[in-house]
Amino acid sequence: MNLKRFRASLRLNQKQMAKKIGVSASYYYKVESGMRYPSFCFLQKLKIAFPKANVDELFF
What pLDDT, on the 0 to 100 scale, is given for residue 59? Predict the structure, then answer.
């Protein structure tokens, strides 16, 4: 599963997902579309917001 499918499974749009994680919508879009790699801080916030999410499956 990738980040886009994970977000879709939660029935959230990109702006809602960014808000839930605590990052800007533009940064989230760049990470999801592959234009930027997620920072360590992004990964930490993702795990705090979604403790059961498997970061390895989402990004690697």
Answer: 86
